[in-house]
Write a structure and sequence with these properties.
alpha+beta, Four Helix Bundle (Hemerythrin (Met), subunit A), Phosphatase 2c, domain 1, 3 domains, five-stranded antiparallel beta sheet, flat
């Protein structure tokens, strides 16, 4: 294509010289201003980081360091000074663990999201991990020495003193945490000093740069006024009509017709405008024809613009081909409709069969529910064996893998909460095996010690499921807690497979731990369950449970309820009447669950002495 020195290019040359000078002036101005703005922005960013991140972070780290050291000293006093749990020092340690340290740690973690130094974040993470660990030792101390009487227990007292001794876990961990936090505090203090120096230096640099702009502002202002006058004249006489035609062409290139009339002037641009009007009229006629043909109006009149109108002749040929295609399609649609109607009848017949099969399966499972519920003791039988008792039982499906068991032999009242592998139909089958095993141990073999009952139950499950066979690799089993209460002496015996026992006395938890192996998980005779004995007091509240309550997902973030929250809920309701406790526990878990599905069977048994 040859080079043409058009009107626009001639005008552009005149403007180019002017624009060149403008660029020089404003380039120098922009460079100075941009440097000054960048300096101010850097100053502002540094000030914000100093005020909102660095200084608060340093103060929060110092506070956390003080709180951790205070907690170490209070844990040593807990062990060394025999006192009740409500004395100020012990209350202060609990507050540090439950509120002060977690809140301060949360503040630092929130601030740390804006830290730029990865080493500082790693140092913080190491300190937080050690804080979580030292909390576990504090909890061990509280569990070993829960009240004044526990200090007289030589084993508990010695175990607690080993934890807080000079080389014990608490001082060692506290020293490491203090070192981590001191390192972090020094790093933040250095960053604070550096930021203050940077703010001071950048302010002075920005001031010097902006003082050199006065001359450029006056010169640039005059050039701008001159350029605006030339641009207005050129736009009104030449550029504006050309831009109007350009806009029409761009719209046509996208298939859009102009929405206003094209102005025709008495010059070269006017000649182009006349040709554009003719082109637009021809395209509109072609568009109307195409729409009519698309609506199957094949008789709509249309004449090509000329004998050389390739598009017009192609549209006429397309009209004839579409008419024939529509006739063929109508015939195929008729044939396919008949085929679809036939297939529909077959599908409806299959759906009816599926509904019948679904009803049969559901009826069978509901009958299985009746069979399973026959092994569960009725409410009056439960109250006869263990008065002042409630049972919260919420199967996930129609049938359940959890079940509860009550029995009486001599002066002993037995109670068990059992969680079989799985839920639904597989869990229900295991519950029948478990109930039969417990009944056989007590009723037939007259076994009265909970640990021996679990040993016999393990043998019964292994034999029932043929676990000794080399061809049988069934991994089913059950977790449970089993107690025997002699109401005449208030003596409690307990044995558990993975599931602990909770006792609340005077508003405090006593947790009796279980053996960490499930029923049916080992060969009979290779392991023995432990029998724990516990002297009850009037007013004690006993809880047996499966893991379904604590594992339920829900809340605003869809997380598990967890055992810690479960224990808090038990503390909240334990003074209520048994039936009211059941109502409150059920209301709490349903509110927590919300729209989430129940993930497992739920079983909670509460017995008031």
């Amino acid at each position: 294509m040859s080079f043409r020195f058009t009107i626009a290019k001639k005008i552009g040359t005149g403007f180019g010289v002017l624009i060149l000078f403008i660029i020089v002036v404003f380039g120098a101005t922009f460079f100075a201003v941009n440097n000054g703005i960048s300096t101010f922005q850097e100053n502002d960013d540094t000030s914000n980081e100093l005020i909102e991140v660095i200084t608060p972070s340093k103060e929060a780290v110092t506070k956390l360091r003080t709180l951790v050291n205070e907690s170490k000293l209070l844990s040593v006093q807990w062990v060394d000074i025999q006192s009740r749990n409500d004395v100020p020092d012990k209350t202060r340690l609990k507050n540090l663990m439950e509120q002060n340290i977690p809140n301060t740690r949360a503040d630092i973690v929130a601030l740390a999201e804006n830290w730029k130094d990865k080493d500082d974040q790693e140092t913080l993470n190491r300190a937080i991990g050690k804080i979580d660990t030292i909390f576990l030792f504090y909890e061990d101390i509280m569990m070993l020495l829960p009240d004044i009487a526990s200090y007289d227990d030589v084993f508990n007292s010695l175990s607690a003193r080993l934890i807080v001794s000079q080389d014990g876990d608490v001082p060692v961990l506290a020293g490491k945490i203090d070192q981590n936090l001191l390192t972090l505090e020094n790093s933040l203090e250095n960053k604070e000093e550096a930021a203050l120096e940077l703010v001071k230096t950048s302010s002075e640099e920005a001031k010097e740069k902006f003082e050199s702009l006065t001359f450029y502002w006056f010169l640039g202002g005059g050039l701008i006024i001159f350029a605006i006058l030339i641009a207005m004249f050129t736009t009104n006489t030449i550029v504006k009509p050309v831009q109007s035609l350009r806009s029409v062409l761009l719209s046509l290139g996208k298939g859009i017709f102009p929405d206003k009339e094209i102005e025709v002037t008495n010059d070269e641009i006017g000649d182009m405008s006349s040709a554009m009007i003719g082109l637009v009229d021809g395209m509109k006629k072609t568009t109307h024809f195409a729409k009519e043909v698309g609506q199957s109006n094949f008789s709509y009149p249309y004449e090509p613009l000329s004998d050389e109108d390739v598009l017009g002749h192609a549209l006429l040929k397309m009209k004839d081909e579409l008419a024939e295609t529509e006739r063929i399609l109508e015939q195929k649609v008729k044939e396919r409709t008949e085929e679809v109607v036939k297939q529909k009848d077959e599908i409806e017949s299959q759906n009816q069969r599926l509904e019948e099969l679904y009803k049969d399966v559901t009826d069978s499972i509901r009958y299985a529910k009746r069979l399973q519920y026959s092994i569960l003791p009725p409410a009056e039988h439960v109250q006869k064996i263990c008065p002042d008792t409630f049972v919260l039982f919420k199967p996930k499906d129609i049938v359940s893998g959890d079940f509860y068991w009550f029995e009486k032999m001599g002066n002993k009242s037995f109670c068990s909460a059992v969680d079989c592998t799985g839920h639904g139909v597989p869990g229900a089958f295991m519950s029948l095996v478990g109930a039969n095993g417990l009944n056989a141990a007590v009723r037939e073999h007259h076994t009265g010690k909970p640990s021996e009952i679990l040993d016999e139950l393990n043998s019964f499950v292994s034999e029932s499921l043929n676990k000794g066979s080399e061809d049988n690799d069934v991994r089913d089993g059950m977790d449970l807690s089993l107690i025997a209460i002699d109401y005449s002496t208030l003596k409690l015996e307990y044995s558990g497979a993975n599931n602990p026992l909770y006792v609340i006395r005077d508003g405090e938890f006593i947790i009796v731990k279980a053996d960490k192996f499930a029923i049916g998980s080992f060969e009979p005779g290779t392991k023995k369950y432990t029998n724990e004995e516990f002297q009850l007091e009037k007013g004690d509240q006993i809880y047996l449970f499966s893991d379904g309550y604590a594992d339920q997902f829900g809340g605003s973030k869809g997380k598990k309820f967890l055992y810690k929250t479960f224990r808090e809920e038990l503390l909240r309701v334990h003074k209520d009447e048994p039936e009211q406790q059941r109502i409150e526990l059920n209301k709490t878990i349903e509110n927590w669950q919300g729209d989430y599905a129940q993930v497992d069977d739920i079983l909670v048994i509460g017995i008031r002495i």
